[in-house]
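Notebook, bench 3.
Goal today: get a predicted structure for Chromosome partitioning protein, ParB family from Hydrogenoanaerobacterium saccharovorans so we can plan the truncation constructs. The sequence was checked against the plasmid map this morning, with no discrepancies at the termini. Length recorded as 310 residues. Pasting the sequence as submitted so the record is complete.
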Amino acid sequence: MGKMVMQDIFSLKNHFTEDDKTEQQSNASNGEQIISIKLSELLPFPNQPFRPYSDEKLWELAADIKQNGVLSPIIVRPFGNAYQILAGHNRVNASKLAGLNEIPSIVKDVDDDAAKLILVNTNINQRDKLLPSEKAFAYKMQLDAMNRQGKRTDLTSCQVGTKLAGSRSDVRLSECSTDSARTIQRYIRLTELIPELLEMVDNESLAFMVGVYLSYLSQEKQQLLYEYMDANELKKVSLAQAEVIKSYKEALDDNRLKLIFFGLKEEKKKATTTYKLPTDRITSYFPDLEKSEIEQELIKILDEYFKRGG
C-alpha cells in the first residue's frame, strides 16, 4: 500500500465531508480521478467512532441525492475484491435508499493508518455536531495512527491541566483542529469511561470535565459510582464532587459516596439552621424593655438555667 503524506491527509477536509449540509454542495476532487463504483462492492470501515445518521436525516439526504445525484464523491481504498469506505458512509446508505446502483468515488491506495486518518479527518473537522464520545474515540484513533507513523504521543501519561510542550502529536493535531492540544487530551480521557458514564456525558447529564475527572477511576470504581447513582436516583455530579471522587480512587466505597453526595449537604444545612421565636410572646414578658435589653435578659436566664444543669 502507498503511504500518504500527512499534509495530504489533513488537506482532505477542504473537499470531503460526512455532513449533509455540505456533502451535496461540492464536487471538488482536488484534481484526482473520479470513478463510478457499484454500491454492492463497497464495505463499511470497521469500528469507526462516528454514529450513522438517524433514519429521518438519512431519508432527507436520500431525497436530496434522488433529486440532485451524489455531487461530492466518496473516498475508498482497495480491499480484496471490493472497496472499503473511508469517507461517505452516509452518502452510500442514502444512495441505496434513493435507488442508485453506483456512486462517484475517489480511490486511494493507502495503508491502515493512513486510512484511519482520512476517515477521522473528513468527519471531525466537518460535521456540525459531534457527540463527546465520537470526538473522544476519533481523536484516539487519529493520535494512535500518527504515533504508529513515527509521531510521538504522551497522552496516556498526561494529567488534567498538564503543561504541553515540544512536538507531541496532540500539539501537532491541534494545529489542524478547532480544539486545543489540552482539550484533545481531555477528550481522549473519556475513552476510559464505562459505557454508562460515557452515555451520561453524551446526553449532558454529566458535564464534560466531570467525565474527565471520573475517567481516572478504575472500571470497577466507575461501576460502583454508576450503580450508587442509579440506586439513589442521582442524575448529576458537580465538578467539586467529581474532584473529591477522583481523589479517593481505589479507596472509593459506598460510605464515601454517601458522604460526598449527602453528607456535605447535611453539614451545610446544619450550619445555616436558624431559630425563630414568637416576638409578641417574648415582649409580653418584658413590656418595659427595649429589644437589646430583652436579648440580654434572655441570655442571663439561659445562663442561669444551664448552670443549674438544665
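The beta strands are 35-38, 42-43, 74-79, 82-87, 102-107. The first strand starts at residue 35 and ends at 38.
Flagging this for group meeting.
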